[in-house]
Amino acid sequence: MPLRVGIFGSGGIAERAMAEPAASIDGVEVVAVGSRDPERARAFADRFGIAAAGSYADVMANPEVDLIYVALPPAVHAEWATAALRAGTHVLCEKPLSANGADARRIAEAADEAGRAAFVGFHYRLHSFTRRLLEVLASGVLGEIEDIEVDFSIPHFVVKPGNIRLDGDLGGGAVMDVGCYAIDLLRAAWGDAEVVSSMARRYDADPRVDLETDFVLAFDRGGTARVRASFLGDDEGRMHLHVVGSTATLHATSVIVPQWGATLCVTADDDILIDEKADVTESSYAAQLRHLVETLPDGPSPFRAADAVRTMELVDDVYRAAGLHPR
User: Fold this and answer.
1) DSSP of 90-110, one letter per residue?
2) What pairing do the DSSP bridges indicate for beta strands 90-93 and 118-120?
3) CB hemisphere CA count around 108 (13 angstroms)
4) How many whole angstroms separate alpha carbon 58 and alpha carbon 274?
5) Containing H/E element for 313?
6) Where in this chain does the record put each Gfo/Idh/MocA-like oxidoreductase N-terminal domain (predicted)?
7) FRET label pair with 203: which of 39, 66, 230, 240, CA 20 to 30 Å apart?
8) What does the domain layout of the chain look like in residue ranges?
9) Strands (E), the chain
10) Backbone φ, ψ for residue 174 (5° rounding)
């Protein structure tokens, strides 16, 4: 029997991350979509050949739904994810898992209480490029790590007024949008960390929202990482990881979305040790869905809500250190 998916939300991310990849994967079928506006839900369903459309409550009540993808603003993830879990379905939340650490914990605890699984959609972790990147970082080829820099900057023309990523009520902000990716990647590579410092450039129209935040993490096992999360990138933007080691240097691009042409280069003086490119035909969103099919209900996964709680706690700490309130 296929994994039968219901969707909360009818925006672009619901198309890219679920409706489109599901159509190409054996073992996954989107069977229902819900929206605050039933007409939008019906239009979305008709476009993708989805049988049922209606409200969020309709999706939760549908006996054919095994998992609900919560493709809503972060501020309402906890409300609807916990409702779906209590209704008896598994849950995949679009990243970040929630608006803050406390809400993330609510989702993880609700999953435990309901005997269901809750995941966060850090899809990039399942792409073969990211697996290879983490393998290289763990291999020791770089020697002792001396410097880590992450720059996840979206081009300045992408996030414009009216975008939900600029709405404090909905959990907007650069750290929420791209900084959470950086924290997830750094934790995957080097383990737990604490926030050392943080400085944010605020959005004039909503000072609760950071347009750009620079922060430093210190890892429990030693070493630090400098991170920029930004909506103010240049025309090309940045999705870069740069690591300097005692014996070699690593530079990776397009880390968040490897299928956009990610590259991985490791050099030692004038020697090129590794020079690889991602398979641009491989979809990280499709890989995420295949992973869920293989993992549910209780297989190992880097996406479990219980682990993502710590990522959201660090997001909170980044905001506090910058003089902002957690979402």
Assistant:
1) EEEEPSSSSSSHHHHHHHHHH
2) parallel
3) 19
4) 51
5) helix 305-321
6) 3-122
7) 240
8) 3-122+286-303, 124-282+312-321
9) 3-8, 28-34, 52-54, 67-70, 90-93, 118-120, 145-155, 193-203, 206-219, 224-233, 238-245, 249-252, 263-268, 271-277
10) -70, -40
Place of tokens 């992450």: 150
Q: Determine contact, residues 4/66, Cβ cutoff 8 Å.
A: yes
Contact 241, 150 (CB under 8 A): yes
Cα distance between residue 303 and residue 166, in whole Å: 26
**Mean pLDDT, to the nearest integer, of 198-206?**
98
Name all contacts of 192-197 with Cβ < 8 Å and 24+ positions apart. 192/219, 192/220, 192/310, 193/217, 193/218, 193/219, 193/220, 193/225, 193/314, 194/218, 194/220, 194/317, 195/314, 195/317, 195/318, 195/320, 195/321, 196/224, 196/321, 197/321
pTM of this structure: 0.96
**Residue 224 bridge partners (DSSP):** 218
* Cβ atoms of 230 and 181 closer than 8 Å: no
The residue assigned the tokens 């073992």 is 27
Token couple for 227? 């991170």
Q: Which CATH architecture has domain 124-282+312-321?
A: 2-Layer Sandwich (3.30)
The length of the chain, given as a count of residues: 327
pLDDT tens digits for range 67-115: 999 999 999 999 999 999 999 999 999 999 999 999 999 999 999 999 9
Beta bridge partners of 5: 30, 67
Find the helix or strand (DSSP H, E) in which 289 lies: helix 284-295
Q: Domain 3-122+286-303 - what CATH class? A: alpha beta
Joined together, the tokens standing for residue 307 give: 């682990």
Q: How far apart are CA 194 and CA 68, in angstroms?
A: 32
258-294 pLDDT tens trace: 999 999 999 999 999 999 999 999 999 999 999 999 9
The pair of structure tokens assigned to 221 is 């096992």
Q: Indicate the SS3 state at residue 183.
A: helix
CA 204/CA 200 separation, integer angstroms = 12
